[in-house]
Amino acid sequence: MKLARVALIAAAFVAAVAVCSSFGTGEANGQERIALRVEIDGAIGPASAMQFEEALAVAAERNAEVFILQMDTPGGLVTSMREIIADILASPVPVIGYVAPAGGHAASAGTYILYATHVAAMAPGTNLGAATPIEMGGPLPSFPGGDDKNNGPEAGKDPKNPPSGDAMIAKATNDAVALIRSLAELRGRNADWGEKAVREAASLSANAALQQHVVDFVARDTTELLQLADGRTVEIAGRKEVLATKGLQVETLEPGWVIRLLAVITDPNIAVILMLIGVYGLVFEFTSPGAVAPGVIGTICLLLGLYALNLLPISYAGLALMLLGIIFLVVEVFNPTVVLGLGGVAAVLLGSAMLLRIEGPGFEMSWAVIGTAAVLTLGLALLTGSYLWAARKNVPRVGAQAMQGLPAKVLDWEGNEGHVLARGERWRAKADEPLAVGDSVEVADVRGLVLTIRRRNVRSDGARQ
User: Fold this and answer.
1) Which of 255, 289, 318 is the last residue in one of the domains?
2) What is the mean pLDDT of residues 218-235?
3) Which residues span the membrane (predicted)?
């Protein structure tokens, strides 16, 4: 018995030593050595930035060996791009940028993000580049080398001396060049080609990018990506770190419903439509109290639309014009005039065109949506106004005036007074002529609760004379 106890204690001691010796290894706390991956498919905007930030936080919390950012994007908003770049530069987990799948691309903002990653890779059949800034819905002109003159036919060809009208364009371009060159110098990539991608909207295929030292390697899939990244030295938070990525288990982080919803409503066209639905839902609720549903739906849509616009780089002058146009159209409903209706449509169209201060791929206002919304809004205002105008011309259907001319039947009569049946109700009545029970009469006037009636003459064909 004592021998069994000794053996049990010894076994427990050995197990404790084994557990203690496992501290500090990748499996000490039941954690596997993994690589987390997030996919950005589409335009880069507030939803993409939030998705990346949350996924990177999960990677740091789970002590992932590497974080794979897989991209297939036409570009997006500068603000969201800079947020992602800032997160990459501050990340405690190495970030591998991977342009995939085959046929995908990392254009515009995607090129800057790829330059910022610790390791950059592309799948065969992909491309990157065309990183010229886009502002106010149009691409910026490139500034190839030329003479130093600001006047004459050669004006504007020197990036250092653009014409005065292009001062803001030059500032945006030079800022973008400085950003991509600083990222290239930080990661040891081709800074000259990065500047060319900004100034001349140059693009490269996967193999050409490898030859130009823009990316580190070309990988067919994630498995090959991790094999080629294995053993590379990267700099994390000021210290050198050697990647051990071969054979890592890859886990993809899917966006939650909040991010999916944000990706939908931050489309400026959807945001404008939500705002219009919200405004007219509230108008309908105020004009028809007790309906409840229009007010609830309208409030939710209006808040979602305003929240989405708050996340986008909008012009408040354009938003004010849109709201002013909506107010004009609402007034048009209750006080039909041609001027307010046309002014409201013009204000909505101009405000929508001015709404986005800076546009990017996937974040442009659609004139088809704007025009359709304006036409439908004007049509609704004119239709409602026509009904109100017709209602004003109709004979009143309530009160004493509505009783005039109504048919009635004498129930009992004595002298000049008695009772009649009108609208299924028994009324006191008086008349200036003798009547008998059962006579058909009509209401001539109403004074208090007493009807003044007169005989109702009917022709032989049944029509009232």
Assistant:
1) 255
2) 94
3) 257-283, 290-308, 314-331, 338-356, 368-390
